[in-house]
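During the second year of the project, the team shifted from modelling isolated chains to modelling whole assemblies. The rationale, set out in the original proposal, was that interfaces cannot be judged from single-chain predictions alone. As a representative example for this report, we include one of the complexes processed in the last quarter. Its constituent sequences, exactly as entered into the pipeline, are reproduced here:
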Amino acid sequence: MAKAKGAIVVDVERCKGCQVCMVNCPTDTIGMATEVNGKGYHYAYMKNPENCTGCTNCAIVCPDGVITVYRVKQN
Amino acid sequence: MEVKEIIRPENLVYRRTPLMTDANLSYCPGCGHGTVHRLIMEVVEEMGIQEDTIGIAPVGCSVLAYDFMNIDCTQAAHGRAPAVATGIKRLWPDKYVFTYQGDGDLAAIGTAETIHACNRGENITIFFVNNGIYGMTGGQMAPTTLEGMKSSTSPYGRNNATMGPPYKITEMVAQLEGVHYVTRQAVHKPGPVRKAKKAIRKALELQKENKGLSLIEFVSNCNSGWKMTPNDSNTWMEENMFPFYPMGDI
Amino acid sequence: MKELALMKGNEAIAEAAIRAGVDGYFGYPITPQSEVMEYLMLQKPEERTGMVVLQAESEVASINMLYGAAGTGKKVMTSSSSPGISLMQEGISYIAGAELPCLIVNVVRGGPGLGTIQPSQADYFQSTKGGGHGDYRLIVLAPASVQEMADFVDLGFELAFKYRNPALILTDGLIGQMMEKVELSPQKERVTEFDQSWVTTGKTKDRERNIITSLNLDPDLQYEHNLKLQAKYKSMEQDVMFEKTECDDADFLLVAYGSSARICQKVVEMARSRGKKVGLLRPQTLFPFPSVELARMARKVKGMMAVELSAGQMVEDVKLAVNGRIPVSHYGMVGGKIHSPDDVLNELEKKYIGGY
Ligand SMILES: Cc1ncc(C[n+]2csc(CCOP(=O)(O)OP(=O)(O)O)c2C)c(N)n1
Ligand code: SF4
Ligand code: SF4
Ligand code: SF4
Ligand SMILES: [Mg+2]
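Output from the structure prediction step:
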């Protein structure tokens, strides 16, 4: 079966570090950065980028709408 | 495959809708208001009705909803959004008119306007964000605050005997003849978000068909008011709010 | 050809509204003005012109319906009487803050509280000084005849749109219930073009989104907004309207509006027949107030008397205009009672004319 491979882009400066995306990622892709953004929030990032399937779960639950998702089909 | 190779325009599967403005949301981290705004704007975008949509912002944390939604908006006095929407819709029956209201706004100070707009069957959509508290003013008790739940004006927990019990205005208005579609949704997890978006689409499509009033209640978190982390508030909401405010069509 | 009709003041307002091409009326019944909505409903304006008439669940709802509808640029109005107008004040403040044009009619009754359904002019302060919270003003028109009840509907909308400000017709049950001959103006078309620079009718591709709001969280912006509003209110002076009766050679001046002015017209006749040089200045706009003209008159007459159906409200504006140059007194009736021309003349003689 074709397996999807994905990636997310977090708009770091808009991220409020709420962690809602993190707990809703089924593949444990997301972690919170140890550094903070300009507003002082530990922003979300791809801790395990190889896991991402591009399922969009993180993006649709992000209250601030700061995640963009990409996906390719792989054989 | 390299991440760089994946992040290409042709692979884009989800982006922030351009119907959300560039303004930073004024909400606390993890607050459901932002998600509800975005879902409404995604549906308006997908239906291609931006030019014909007028939103009414309430008084509450979402008072600035008009800053975030890239549509024409009117900001209403506390509780009066359904009357404001009535005025607009009666004169512009072919436009899509919706209100966006909190639980204090809709179920306390605006009860009369809510019930009568529902009863007249105004052909509008009400988006009702129930977080069981007055978020904006600093976490006071709302008509929806659960029994025993602490707030700044019920610091020892809501006492139903002296403060009255919480009530379900959504179930109440569902009884009214003018109300066509009533449903209760949530936006804290991917599954509920997808369902909630379908409900929003259905409500706006019913408006096009002149079916009468539709109301969608979103049971949502107020992590600041509840004094919890966002994820804890979502868990608390599932465990405590959902049993009293059950999900689904009413 | 002139179209004449014999009508009550309240009915004249309703008929004039239809003819003015008003798009929407939202109201709630209250004596002594229920005839406005009753007349509208009987006339089936949705068939005559497409005008929407909706009975709301309260005055709170009607004023907020008006707010929403006014934000779309259409011609909309409501009418009520004192307790109902009190209930509308938050909404009126929002409408003024958001700078929306609309027409509000107050057929005043005696207060405070539920008061009486009899005529009164005790809502002058509420009407001309704001009424709700914040520094704002309404354009206030004071008809003194059934003809003016009809004419001021058109005038109210004209000024409301000119300044993007709510206009208020301040009248009472005396004029509202009075039957007089009235010349009706021809039917106007309802407006179909709206000023896209501010109306909320849906964001089209060729313009930015429009927002109707009275909120500015930034105090600097709210400061600027208030200054702009004050400048606008000041500029309204150019539209001040008043009527003078027997003022040219007057030694004493009565100042009265609306129903009191009707009574004072009789007083002037009576005084003149006794050889007493009494004149009447009747403000037709209470905001803007004819202060400049009163200041001018203060150089010519020996005294002024404000006559009102209140304990003394407009008299304060007369005094401000006259600024101590000559004596200004007040004669009023309260609680729904009406003074007779004799009462007013006696008071005037006692106060000023004496051994004249
Ligand atoms: C007439 C009036 N009364 C009270 C307030 C103060 N006030 C502002 S927001 C609010 C409560 C809002 O709570 P809710 O509708 O639940 O919205 P939330 O902030 O929780 O989203 C109150 C009481 C007001 N602005 N206007
Ligand atoms: S849900 Fe959005 S705002 Fe919250 S941490 Fe994730 S990316 Fe940041
Ligand atoms: S797209 Fe899916 S798999 Fe990828 S980070 Fe988001 S939730 Fe996780
Ligand atoms: S106070 Fe509550 S409702 Fe308001 S933004 Fe914060 S979390 Fe959301
Ligand atoms: Mg709330």
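Residues 30 and 46 of chain A are 5 Å apart (CA to CA). Chain A has one domain: 3-74.
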